[in-house]
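Input/output pair, single chain:
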Amino acid sequence: MNPLSYLKPAIESVLEAGKIVLEIYNSEFQVYDKGGNDPVTEADMRAGKWITERLAFTEIPVLSEEDSEKKDISQSPAAWILDPIDGTREFVHKNPEFAISLGLSVQGEARLGVVYNPVTRELVYGETGSGVVYEIFDSPPESYSIEGVSFSRFLNDDFKQNEILISRTEEKEGLFRKAPLPAGWKLVSLGSIAYKLGLVAAGKSALSISLKPKNEWDICAGIALVRASGGSDLEIRSGRPYPFQSRSGRGEGLIAGHSKSLNSVWEAAGTYFRSELRDWS
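Output:
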């Protein structure tokens, strides 16, 4: 399988779904509770349905957060892993720090990712063998072509940044208050984890760290982008690169981004991060 051959339809499906999401974002909409204070909106459902239908021709199963019944993709050679809106709470509160997140996992490895913020019109996409593209549109695009685009590896050895993106909720809970970070590092809070990982992959920040569980649909696209950009990632509990298509579909904690920065921060604070891991709340 050549994941790059699926990049164009993945981008097209996400951009079209972005129009649906933006239309609902700019309207009055209802919010439903899936249980456990987990909101969902019409935008989540319609965007998820749109992308799933547009990718049906690939004959690759789609695991979406909004599936009424979660598929077991652990035995599939490949799987699309989708979060129609990562950051639904931000969406509900008209905070633009959310994103559509579509990843492709092949044999348990995140290989391709598309992350799109319909409000800021930031698009990040890439494939691990090629690199990453970051683009900001003046207006929602009617069409998009990847022909002739230049892929980059923003997280190369010459990368210089000292910013770590963290969850606004985790900041409020004080999870990083006593983190023994190396000198000179600063924490910046932001919404959606997919959006944060997309920005890291685009070289806008060095790392993203979370001390709470992550579902595969939260991070598959973002992890693929970080890896495509030359970076790396660890599940905090195991200290190993994130696996995908697992039976549990989740991991405990995440650090991802520029590899040298990750190693430096992990050496200084890895034990602390493990001690501060939390469940969802």
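The chain is about 30% helix and 30% strand. The chain has two domains: 3-136, 163-276.
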